[in-house]
Amino acid sequence: GETPFYAESLIGTYGKIMNHQNALSFPDDVEMSKDAKDLICAFLTDRKVRLGRTGVDEIKRHPFFRNDQWTFDNIRDTVAPVVPELHSDIDTSNFDDIEVEKGDAETFPPPKAFVGNQLPFIGFTYFKEDQLLKGVGTSSSDNFKENSKDKENCLDDKKELQKKLQLLEEQLDHEMQAKDELEQKCRNATNRLDKLVKELDKEMNSRQKVEASLRQLERERALLQHQSTESLRKAEMEMDRKRSLENELNVLRDQLEDLKKRNQQSQISSEENMQLQRQLEETNAVLQAEKEAAARLKKTQAEAQKQAQSLEVSLRELQDKHDQLENSKLEQEKQLRGLQAELEEERRNRSLGAETISDLQGSISDLENELKEIKSTLSKVQTEKKELQGRLNNLEKEKNNQEIDLTFKLKSLQQSLEQEEAEHKATKAKLADKNKVYQSIEEAKSEALKEMENTLQEERSSKLLVEEKLLQLQKEHSMLDCDYKQAAHKLEELKTQKKKLSEEVMHLTSRLEEEIHKRGLSQSELKMQKQQVAVLGSSEKLLKQELNQLLEMKLSLEKQNQELRREKQEADGQLKELKDQLEAEQYFTTLYKTQTRELKDECDDRNKLIKELQQQLSEYKEERDSLAAQLESSLTKADSEQLARSIAEEQYSLLEKEKIMKELEIKDMMARHKQELSEKEATISSLEESNRTLTVDVANLASEKEELNNKLKELQQEFQKAREEERQMNSLKVSFERQLQSERTLKIQAVNKLAEVMNRRESVRGGPRGIDTEVHRKEKENRKLQLELKAERLKFNSTMMKYQKELTDMQAMMTEESSMRQELQMALDSKDSDIEHLRCQITSLSVHSLDNTSIGSGNDMELGDGYPDSRLEGWIAFPTKNTKRFGWDKKYVVVSSKKLLFYNNEQDREQSNPFMTLDIDKLFHVRPVTQTDVYRADAREIPRIFQILYANEGESKRNEEVAVEPAPHERPNYISHKGHEFILTLYHFPSNCDVCTRPLWSVFKPPPALECRRCHTKCHKDHMERNKESIEPCWVSYDASSAKELLLLTNSKEEQQRWISHLLKRIPKKNPTLSPPAAQSSPQDSASFFPPKVSPKPSPRNSPHLSSHRNAMKIQSTKNQQTSGKSS
Question: Where is the Phorbol-ester/DAG-type domain (predicted)?
Fold first, then answer.
């Protein structure tokens, strides 16, 4: 958390505290509820208003403490939301690592004044000195004899130990040679296998390359053939098109010639018409001139003026009409553009409608398929429901029958027991009465009594048996009840699924109906749009025709207007001339009248001819339009037919191409299948041969392993004997030292007494020299003995050091040997699983004949799944080793018939290099986990996690897994060395180092120390860095029969169910046999030859012990294990 009133300086902090009403603020990056903020604000306020001023009940009543999980009355009974996983009493893995301060440590100067608290406790040590004065009365000659005997015994023991050491060395050499031979054999076998595999790979690659080139050539040839056929077909099509175009050209030429002829005829007729019109006009003009008299010139002038005015009016009207027509033309052009835009929009809408229709058809087909699948699943669910109901009824019937039989048997047995007891009591009473009368027949009655008691005991034993059967039947009854509940639960789930499916079906049907309705509406709209497009096209054509006519009318009216103006001007000029010529012209009127009559007749005839020609021209035009329409329709039909034909031909060519490619693929598949069959047969034969050799090697290895185990046991026994002898030697040494000290004291006392005696005698007599010589001789002997003793001590210490060094070397070699053996065993298990997989493939190939093999891309998968119950493999995630962050590492797992093999990656899988194996015989149980099992995992991951419980002895791990150094960001929790699990600590209270005599503690600045969390051995950190050999191996070893757990994460819930069901099938029906700890020696156990001690920390999970009922598991607590003290 963050401090509420944090500031850089002390004054700033105090200022914020004093101004707490405004200074208190909550961080934005942390989400907090309103109740939590209100609680904090209520606590961080003035004491007059502070929460809890009236009592604790006020705090308890705050809304922050109101929830559904607990109240203040039952808070101690509820489970905590986070339960930390502790490995020992001093486990600090759940706390954050504190960074080491790099600043200089503060050093306190030593006080100059004498205090006295640094001195040792002088005067408080107790020495029992009277022990040295016990043997004062014994003579020095006896001590010398005992010393010589002890020396001889020591020499004999030394020789025996040397002999044993030589024997052990010879055995070790033999073991090393055997190990080297085994390694050489293994290497040779692996080299041979690698060479064979490489040669096979090379041959396979070359063969595959040749086959691929052949297939490519065949494909190219087929493609070339197909291209040649297509080119021929296209050439024929081009020829046909060329012919059709030539025919069309000829037809068009003929039509052109006809049109030219018609044009020429029409031009001739129009020229004749023009000439006739001119003649008519001339005659009309002459007639008018003749008719008009000179007197009527004025009238004619007025009429001409009127005519001019009328012409101007008509001109104006024509101009207005012209303007109107132009406006209408513009409006029609606008309408045309709008219609064209609408047409384009309609076309787009039509294309979109077609696309939506195709999409809807696809979705309808998908929905129909989904409906079929849902119906099939519904039918399956119904059949399963019926089967479950039938099973449930049968189980209920069996349960009722068993209950009835049991009650009947119980009643009958109770009645028989009561009868027997009554008879027994009656016989006892009779016997008691008869004992008084018939004392001579006591023996016979006692025998009868014994027989009755025997029968009673038999009845009791049968009763016990019946009770046991009853208990078993009750257990079965409870199991049947459980099965019935499970079946009912499944039935309810199926019902809910059925309801959901029916709802989905209803939803899908409604969607389908809506889609059909939409489709019908879109089709009807399409039809309407098509009709509108046709109507618009026809109206466009009509408008175009009207527009052309109006344009022609406009042009003709403009021409007439211009001619009329010109005529007016000419008429004004000619009026004067006509007045002059009027008189001259009157003469010719009579002549002209006759001529005009004749010309009128001719003009009428010509007009009739013109009308007939016009009628014919209009008929020709109509015929031409109809023919043009027919020609357009026929051309469109021909184009559509040609397009359809070209599309069909292209589809045909594509289908032919696909057919050729499919035939080639079929041929390739057939060839590949035959080749794979031959290759598989070859690999099967080679694998069988390698299997035979491997089985022989395995048998040899097993025998050698047994021999090595026996030798190892012998060596252990010998080592224990040597240790016992060493202890005896130590005890002898201690006794010798005590005797030596006593002899020294005796010697000093004797010398003192002799000196006193000598002084006395010298004072009495004149000092004879005989006693001095004896004293000198004894002193010399004593010196010699002391020198010999020192030499013996040095020899003994040197031999002890030598033996200890050899012992540690042997231990290291044994650990290496055991790790090598374990790795070889794991590789062998991996090879066994591969051989088993290949055997399954062989059997599946022999079962499926060549005639029934299906050609397709999934052949390998079908062959691989021949025996799905015996093998399962895939990627599964393991929990990471970091205890602070709960994560997962993906590993490749293979389940064979005997082993569970775990690989780091596919490369290790190919090289048969697993990092861990589990015996399937040692598995206890497999089950899906709950939230309480993995409280640190994500809630979404829990349906995909499952748990495996197994015996510790069934696990084999590579030592590299322990010795691998973790990543720098993931610091290990302990340092492993000689079986120890050292943790870095600091001791502020008195504690001693188990390796050296230096102090391990200090109040202010203690030295860095290490403590084993298993045996609690303490030492300085320097010993681990400088002198590792001085640290003794760990005395604690775990029981191999204890159980362990393993959590695994799959990719999906279905995959989790598949793994659980498969592993449950593979778990043995009988209880997994737990071998004694000595038989299965782990690398850590083999590293230390010391007697096992109980672990000081409880095991992480409860060890399971199996009961006899349906392989069920009872978890018994192992928390009350006693910790053994460290040996002194």
Answer: 979-1034
pLDDT band at 629, cuts 50/70/90?
Answer: confident
For 682, phi then psi, to 5°, come to -65, -45
The domain total for the chain is: 2
Residue 953 Cα to chain centre, angstroms: 30
**Does 876 share its domain with 784?**
no
**How far is residue 378's CA from residue 506's CA, in Å, rounded to a whole number?**
14
Q: Evaluate whether residue 513 is within a structural domain.
A: no
**371 CB-near residues (< 8 Å, 6+ apart):** 505, 508, 509, 512
133 in a domain, yes or no?
no
The yes-or-no verdict on residue 1105 having pLDDT over 50 is: no
User: Does one domain contain both 956 and 1086?
Assistant: yes
> Is pTM beyond 0.85 here?
no
714: enclosing H helix or E strand: helix 442-764
How far apart (Å, rounded) are the C-alpha atoms in residues 649 and 653? 6
DSSP-assigned letter for residue 300: H
Instruction: Give the count of beta carbons closer than 10 Å to the beta carbon of residue 75.
Output: 11
Q: Are 799 and 833 in contact (CB under 8 A)?
A: no
The amino acid present at 471, given as its one-letter code, is L
Residue 424 domain-assigned?
no
The per-residue pLDDT for 59 is 92
Please tell me what DSSP assigns to residue 987.
B
Q: Which tens digit of pLDDT belongs to each residue from 80-92? A: 877 787 777 788 8
Q: For residue 1011, list its beta bridge partners.
A: 983, 1018
949 and 1072 part of one domain: yes
Bridge partners, 199 (sequence order): none
1034 in the same domain as 1097? yes
What domain range includes position 955? Answer: 866-1116
Q: Tell me: do 793 and 884 sit in the same domain.
A: no
| DSSP code at position 880 | P
Residues 899 and 759 in one domain: no
3-state helix, strand, coil in the chain (%, to 5): 70, 5, 25
Q: Are residues 883 and 794 in the same domain?
A: no
CB-based contacts of 361, cutoff 8 Å, min separation 6: 519
Alpha-carbon distance 682 to 691, whole Å?
14
Q: Does residue 766 fall inside a structural domain?
A: yes
Mean pLDDT, all residues of the chain? 76
Lowest mean pLDDT among 28-42, 728-742, 778-792: 728-742
**123 conformational bin, left if phi > 0, alpha if psi -120 to 50, beta if neither:** left
- Under 8 Å between Cβ of 808 and 977: no
Summarised one tens digit per residue, pLDDT across range 746-798 is 888 778 777 777 777 655 554 455 566 778 888 888 888 888 888 888 888 88
Q: What is the phi/psi pair of residue 499, to 5°?
A: -60, -45
Please indicate, yes or no, whether residues 981 and 1080 belong to a single structural domain of this protein.
Answer: yes
